[in-house]
Amino acid sequence: EFFMTGICSANCEYCYLKKNQKSLYPEEIHNPDIILSNLKKVLNWYTKEKFCCNIDLFSANWINTPLGPQIFEILYNAFNSVDNIYRPKMISIPDNMQFLKDEKATEMVEMNIKRFFDLGIALSFSASIDGYYCEEGRTPVTDDFYEKLKNFLTVYGYNLHPMISSYNVSK
After folding, report:
1. pLDDT, greater one: 14 or 71
2. How far is CA 64 from CA 77, 88, 99, in A?
């Protein structure tokens, strides 16, 4: 499991990262150069030692930031350089899917889904979306966003992992 960043625009009441941000991901280590350098170090070890396991990329809104394309590129280059048997079969990305609001970010994600598929690696998105009526207090959503989300999930066969809480269960 990788926590790519500790920054998130959503304010989910139940989020363990948000509740424990100071101890899990202190602000002083949130530096893009450090994040990318550490990712490279772990992946260098992973490929050198011929380690192989699925990977989970957690946290917040890293995809539609300048880190997004760089992280995908680092992952792609690391796994493109090793034999197929030493590549993870899946890179799971639980995400709030806010990248769908940005056409360029969506295109970048879709291009990477295809590139990784060609390497034999499934990029598997799991939409952390509570539902149209339950998003209060989180990232604002629109009918257009939900239409894009439905289409994206349908095209790629991805799923949702709603986190209904005591705060919104009545909705």
Report:
1. 71
2. 20, 23, 5
